[in-house]
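Format is sequence with structure; example below:
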Amino acid sequence: MLLDRKSPPAIFEVQNLFLPRPEVILLDNGIPVYVLDFPGQEIVKIEAVFRAGRPEEAKRLASRATAKLLREGTLTRTAADIAEHFDYYGGSLSVPTNLDTTNVLLFSLKKYVHELIPVFAEVLQQPTFPEDELETFRRTSLQELLVDLEKVEVQAYRKITELIFGESHPYGYNSVAEDYAALTRDDVVRHFEQWYTPSNCTLFASGRIDAGVLQLLNQYFGQNPVKGQVPVFLPPKTDVKPRKVHISQPGSLQSAIRVGRRLFGRERPDFNGIFVLNTILGGYFGSRLMMNIREKKGYTYNIYSTADAMLHDGCLYIATEVNKDKSAATLRAIMAEMKKLREHPVSDDEIAMVRNYLLGMLLNGLDGPMNISDVVRSLVVEGLPWESYEALVHTIRHITPAELQQLAQRYLQPGDFWTVTVGGN
């Protein structure tokens, strides 16, 4: 039988998107552990999450410095000892950057969890924050900042978030040299002691999670006493009317463009629809912004839009870099695409393409225990009910062109958007 190499395979809609529900276990001191046990796996992922991000800072940059310095030494181990220990047993310890939380991840083979979980706990419970490591953090961060500020795209992102949220907002302030100079070891220690506590800790365990792993977690995390309650953060409001801002960067061959507005988090009823609408506008390679401004007009190599939902707030912004002579034309084209979404329903073919793309992305997010754990963690940290995942799937499958147009009329009004350009005049 000859293979048909001329006709593409048939496209089938993704079916049976089911998010496994974790088992919730409480350690002796009440720390919740969300368990996703996959007996066929020989890898273990343990993630400790603390609400210890920017909203909890008493001093700017304290959250970032604390997270960065966790691995730089404990009461019994140096940074080199910690790194060597994890390398020897084939594990990894990482602390990814996050505005809202500090997430500390341990990856280990099942057979080595007895060697790695105790050190993982030690890093989280007994860091020493050496003064010389803090000085290294200050110096390297300042060097990175100086390099970044030469890039028009970095300047544009910093400015658009500052304008959307306000300079006093945890999501809106931008780090400057004076912030690094003012940061002391006492600030870091204070941040750690206040927020890295059992009452502010949630654990996620995925992979091969048997009774032995849970016993280790209870031994090393469940015996510390719980003290106090975590206060609730309320984001500051801003009533500043959006406007256009240009930052001159003499000698720059390109201009960075950011167009954005304030939104909200995933808990709001409109967010799932915004998620679909944003994908149509600029959320994937076949989006309207990409097809018109890159493919048709050739103004840029890349353009995208993002509906960014944080724990206490959110925003939607469009980002691109273009030749400085095309800035005005690009801005007109961006506004034209938003106007089309406000005035005309999305076609059935286009919405079918976006449905398939988004359902495929969700399916990829359910591929294996590590990815599933990320989805579960997002729901738990954001305080969303388990049904919210099914609600997102339902919205993607069933949202209508009329509903998308109504969302565009509500949230894509040009008067609600800040516009930032950085580059040559």
Observations:
- Residues 255 and 423 are 4 Å apart (CA to CA).
- Residues 131-148 form the longest helix (18 residues).
- The first strand starts at residue 23 and ends at 26.
- The chain has two domains: 23-221, 244-423.
